[in-house]
Design goal:
Strand order of the largest sheet: 2-1-5-3-4
CATH topology of the largest domain: Ubiquitin-like (UB roll)
Oligomer: single chain
Shape: elongated
Strand content: 15-25%
Number of helices: 5
CATH superfamily of the largest domain: Beta-grasp domain
Structural class: alpha+beta
CATH architecture of the largest domain: Roll
Number of strands: 5
Amino acid sequence: MKEMLTEGLIYLNINGEVRKTLVRPADTLLFALRERLGLTGAKPGCENGDCGACTVLVDGWPVKSCLMLAVEACDHEITTIEGLNNTPIQREFVEKFAFQCGYCTPGFIMNCQGLINIHPDASDEVINEWLQSNICRCTSYEEITAAVKSALNTVNNDPVS
């Protein structure tokens, strides 16, 4: 009879710090972040990739952490909402009141930070398409779109941000 692997030690580069944790082969990155490492900014929502509440950045790209296995995240740079530090998109979400209950906000901010990283000159069409990967049931997307546009403007006019 084959011996089953129950847990193994992995190393994850999270928010610029290498962290080690035990995971099972089927544990998602979301589970490892929240339950093993105590980083609760990424939220469990649908847990099948539809809502975007669990979005984190992997090598600068937005990824739904409920769909990525923790072991797949090894050798990649992971950024969670806890790793952002007063970025233009965070400031603009507050300034434009782009949230209500706040549950989806970390996922939206991480997705929007990915947009800024990848498409710093995004058109309205690209912004609207990009925002479709996250769901907010409390507010309209008008404030979120305004926050993204303002953050993009800040980034494009202030190369130090």
